[in-house]
Amino acid sequence: MKKYLIYLLTSFCFTNNFYPEDNSNVNYTQIFFKWPQIENTISYTLTLTPEIGNPLIINSESNSIINTEYLSWGMQYTWEICGNNEIDQIISCHEPKNLIINPLPLYYPNQLDVLLLSENDYYDGITILDFDSMRFSSALDKHGVPIWFIDRSLFGNFNSKILVTELLTSGNFTGIGIGSGYEFDINGNVFFETPSEYPVHHDFIRKDNTYFLINAVNELNPCPDDCPDNLPEDIFWQGDRFIQLDLEGELIWEWNTFDYIDLNEYNPRYLDRLSNSYPEEESMDWTHANSIFYNGDNIFVSIRNLSRIIKIDYSTKDIKWHIGDTEFMNEIYFDNQIEFSQQHSIKKLDNGNVLFFDNHTFLEPQISRCIEFQYDQDLNTAEVVWEYILPDSLFTGSRGECDRLDNGNTLINVGRTGNVYEVNVNDEIIWHLRMKNNDLDISSFRAERVDNLYPLAYSVIIQNLKGDYNNYYIQNTEDIIEFTLHNIGWEDQEFIFSIYNTQNEEIYNNLLTADAYSEANIQIDTSIITITNNEEYKLKISPTSKPDSYQEIYFYIEGILGDFNNDSIVNIIDIIIMVNSILANEYNALYDLNNDQLNNILDIIRLMNIILD
Fold first, then answer.
1. Angstrom distance (rounded) from CA 73 to CA 149
2. 268-282, 289-303, 556-570 — which is least confidently predicted?
């Protein structure tokens, strides 16, 4: 069997092998660290040393780690990685890198207080939420300590604003600015902005590699029969379009309220409001949609000003049913109705039920609540199966969200009151966050609980890797490249493995699914691929959720093991080359045939055995 040395040069598209990059400035204290392998390492030690204070030491079995220990805002850290052997002795260390954690912005809220925390029942993780009245978003730990914030100045030159709507599997965020929807990364780098012809309000999400948004639309239509005397015969009605865009911003699908809701179905309250503000205001706020939920076959939407929830067939665009205030309905779908008003944040749960926040505005008593209901389209029935009624002191006329957590708890954002609750399955409050700034309540739309900031975080360990950083090779006796992928993120991820030749043609492709917090071993049989000696090849590892976060490994086949003069023969001449190097007392990993970090007589014996074989 021929024996080869496979040489590798590794590079990461965004980090030059180290993440964060040296001298990075970040707006978060929960840091994902990633670094190149160190030869013969069993484990790694990360040492984080602040400008002031004691170092933090963290151990890892892979070449990546997520630090969830407390780090200080406005502090510079030095971080150093060392590799350890099987008895925890340091083998080698990478050069130290610097990391700067920026101070919190001057506009950060000054009164974030956790009034209640039940450690045993709290669903572990951090809470991502928007500070709507302060025009930006942040992430907090269970004690209300800030973990991350997004710099609002990155989103618009005037009156800038960014409210997070969700954290994606890719680790990117979606959010809403002034009239625009964005996808951006943890540092605020924008990957997508909605085209100017689709101004966004209230909701913007990414699903199945497409974007959904709500877009207001005005049409001139006759004023209703009870039209106030000061309004003209024809007035502008403001409705909504629910729009789906592809990743390039091209229109895929839309649903217009003017096409599917009759103009007889309106709330007289908003006609009166137009009358009171006319002519300064020229349109009646007819529908005021505020939430969209897509699950592949159907779309659920919340029409606030009609106090209505609609289920839409995605393929036909037909209304399957609607539920809400029957005073504004031409057609009633369910025999038993559920009383709610001015609702927000519609969601379909895994059990098939619907969960939403009922603001209960204009109803008596005015008490906001979460509602979960089940429905049967065939029997035309809808039934509340769970509700959580908030104290009357926490009534919120607008905003609000109910989010079901994986352990059955419910996270409740109480809109304009500046309160966030977590309640358990027994309706007991187990976490209560109060948000104020200068004694004023902070209004908020959404809150989301996640494990940490990194649903996507991975690294690769190559088996039998030798050499130093930027001078790696694999010493191998078989036509196999073997490595271990460590998925330390909290989402299951798919990875594509590809090999490209010097013409950048793909000659190998495979797909791997890695569960959250797991590792997977991969073997690539190079004997089934046409490999030419001394030509460079590229192994590319790409997560499908974020292809631009790929890792690339460059390698080439140097030749037969022991053929130091590249004449395709291993003989006495190669022994002489090795002996001369040993006599010069110059270590060369190429001649270290037994991988003991030395060049000596044992390597000569190994080379002689190769010749005799």
1. 11
2. 556-570
Mean per-residue pLDDT over the chain, rounded:
92
Whether the predicted pLDDT of 5 surpasses 90: no
For 177-214, the pLDDT digits (tens) are 999 999 999 999 999 999 999 999 999 999 999 999 99
- Residues β-bridged to residue 460: 485
Q: Are strands 298-303 and 471-476 parallel, antiparallel or unpaired?
A: unpaired
Over 60: is that where the pLDDT of 367 sits? yes
Percent of the chain's residues with pLDDT above 70 = 94
**Residue 559 pLDDT class (50, 70, 90 cuts):** low
Among residues 463, 465, 461, 515, the alpha carbon closest in space to that of 488 is found at 515
Question: Which residues face 25 on adjacent strands?
Answer: 100
Angle between helices 572-583 and 601-612 in degrees, nearest 10: 170
b/e map of 265-283 (b: 16 or more CB within 10 Å)?
A: bbbeebbeebbeebeeeeb
pLDDT bucket at 493, cuts 50 / 70 / 90? very high
Closest CA to 478 of 3, 135, 71: 3
Q: How far apart (Å, rounded) are the C-alpha atoms in residues 140 and 135?
A: 16
E-strand ranges in 438-550 read: 440-441, 447-450, 458-462, 465-468, 471-476, 480-487, 493-500, 506-514, 518-525, 536-543
Element spanning 274, H or E: helix 268-277
Residue 155 near residue 162 (C-beta atoms within 8 A): yes
For residue 386, the number of C-alpha atoms closer than 13 Å in the C-beta half-sphere is 19
Q: Are 538 and 554 in contact (CB under 8 A)?
A: yes
Residue 279 CB contacts under 8 Å (≥ 6 apart), including other chains? none
Pick from 162, 122, 114: nearest CA to 140:
114
How far is residue 575 CA from its own chain's centroid?
Answer: 55
Residue with tokens 């912005």: 105
Distance CA 172, CA 547 (A): 12
| 382 neighbors 337 (Cβ within 8 angstroms) | yes
Report helix, strand or coil for 308.
Answer: strand
Q: Residues 258, 307: contact at Cβ < 8 Å?
A: no
What pTM value is reported for the model? 0.89
